[in-house]
Amino acid sequence: MGFLRTCLDFLSHAVFTPFSPLEGIFSPQQPLFIPTNLETYGPSDFGGAYRPRINPKDCYYPGLSRIGYRQCNDVTKTCWLRRKGYKDYGINDDYEVTIPLGIKREYWLTVDQADLRPDGQPKVNGVALNGTYPGPTIEACWGDEIVVHVRNRYRDNGTTIHWHGIRQHHSNEMDGVNGVTQCPIAFGQEYTYRFRATQYGHTWYHSHYSLQYPDGVAGPLIIHGPTSAEWDIDNGPILVADWLYNTSFAAFNCEAYDCGTETPPKADNIVVNGIGAFKQPDGQWTNNYFKTAFKSGKKHLLRLINGSASSSYVFSIDNHTMTVIASDLVAIKPYTTTSLLLGIGQRYTVVVEANQKPSLYWMRTTPAAGCSSFRKNQKGEFTQVKETTSFIAYEGAPRLPHPDSTSVKNRGVTNTCIDESHINQNRLIPIVPWKVSAKPTNDVSRDSFTAGYEKNVNPNLYPQLPFKHWLLANDSNSQPLWVNFSQPTILDPFISPPFSSITRFEESNGYIYLIVDGQFLFNPDPNFQNISTGHPIHLHGSDFVILNQDWNPYDPVNSPKGFKFDNPARRDTALLPAGGYLALAFKPDNPGAWLMHCHIAWHASSGLALQLVVRPREIPDVNGDLLPVLRGCESWRKWDRQDPIVQTDSGI
Fold it and tell me: Where is the Plastocyanin-like domain (predicted)?
């Protein structure tokens, strides 16, 4: 885990040696933004801004090209490939069934200690991918094979990389969760992830080793494909994150133990694409903002990502509306709004028309009430955080250091922590519909769980460390998840080691319902309590539909009357409302060991997670010999014997 070391050590300046044979060709370490000095904003002001590594018109499909298919995305964004007299590949295709066969896209990543200063302030024991935060933007085309070689050069930790929201259909061993789908990658070793891009849109990748991702091991992932609305310019990923100056491993102590005002852990700042302003002793802010270029009259595509440890945000752009065209990796029917709740792990694709006076306009990331955690003074004011964290700059606008635009709060924007699908069940309507059966194939009473927190330390809970745990419980014998790094579930899906929190599903058709409640209705243990906070729930291995979200506790008799079955919102991360419930359903069509967890890093590390083992009898045949996993586990066990890792949290 490295906690015992990281509490004592501070950042060292690391030297990074690339190990990709193609390093000089596509240089993945380019920063997302480079400031310049001009009197007016022009193209040269954004020399380090996002430029697609892959132009969608250059996506290549050898087999389909030979029989006459050609790109049609330049004709309409809803189309991807077209052959006269035949059906198009496009936005209306069921991407779980119809997938064009592309080519291989190969990348190399190194995890190592890094000197990270997004807002100019040093971070204790920062860890990064190829020396930068965020890590390199990985890009591919719909149907491509993505191959990523990950090397661990960070001696204090193992590592894995999870491809957030990627379904990993029949590639469970590539999901990147130590203790579930693989052993951690040992120091000095390499693991190769290889999977098909069956979905399209954008997401992010991050370490799933303990608390490593809040320390810097995360980056954007873009899969070019059709979209449900027209646009002109792709402005690329906008990755928003809370930022801690301390190492996350040390900060977790204030989740596990009572640190007074530091419980739960408090982030120091907000950074956007690895850039943040800093409030100086005189009260003035540094002019260190991420900015992105707009051209008058053009429609701009923005790819929003929340890569935080513990905070959700309400995202808005002064004087502009957004057309929402995708939630997570699901294309939806377009609708317009002035703001979006961006929960931890969630993504939205939006189109913004540059129809205002050429000027500078703030992009606001307002911490959501009850769903964020930043340092405050005695008056309850943020000490180092503000909502104006980045901005858009029209080409030709005066080159001022930052905008003076005003918020759109007078147009109905609030800081309420509520999902779009919770505001209105008729938002986030998928283009490719699912009609969910009103009769689940599983026993819902067994598969109803409550997110709860200990009132007092319980010595009967594993590990027998003197701290309070979060967990997902369905009876009084439930335990927090605590994975065994050396014994991933995928190698034997039939065993149930202590504290593995495994629920198995033998069902192979229909829909499995899961209820996650915030009032501890399903666990009579008086030592547990509901904490009034929203929990972003993320499921690996499948998208799920949101049957309903409600502020009220779940009622097995009356709550299902409010379920939506005809093409409900579908995604991979949704908010459990504070004190209420989240009802979701997924297809059991992907045999494997899959994690479901709260994406608040402190809660996941405390044990607020489950393993869902889907169709366990089929897992060996689907996964094959798993030689890369076995070799990786052999390397991990050998290294752990030589230089033992002390596991101080759940491991995920």
Answer: 111-226, 236-395, 528-617
Compute φ and ψ for 66, nearest 5 degrees.
Answer: -65, -25
- Which residue in 32, 3, 29 sits closest to 18, CA to CA? 29
DSSP one-letter string for 27-61: -TT--S------SB--GGGGTTS---SS-GGG---
CA 303 from chain centre, in angstroms, equals 13
Q: Is 511 in a helix, a strand, or coil?
A: coil
Residue for token pair 């050590």? 9
Q: What single-letter amino acid sits at 30?
A: Q
Which phi and psi angles does 233 have, rounded to 5°? -130, 130
What does the pLDDT look like over 50-88, one tens digit per residue? 777 888 888 999 999 999 999 999 999 999 999 999 999
Beta strands (DSSP E) in 34-137 are: 70-71, 79-82, 89-90, 104-113, 127-129
- Give which of 490, 519, 473, 481 is closest to 605, Cα–Cα: 481
Q: What share of the chain is helix, strand, coil (3-state, %, to 5)?
A: 10, 30, 55
β-bridge partners, 631: none
* Full-model pTM: 0.92
Q: Which of 1-5, 213-217, 486-490 has the lowest mean pLDDT?
A: 1-5
Residue (of 490, 514, 587, 572) closest to 164 by Cα position:
572
pLDDT, greater one: 17 or 105: 105
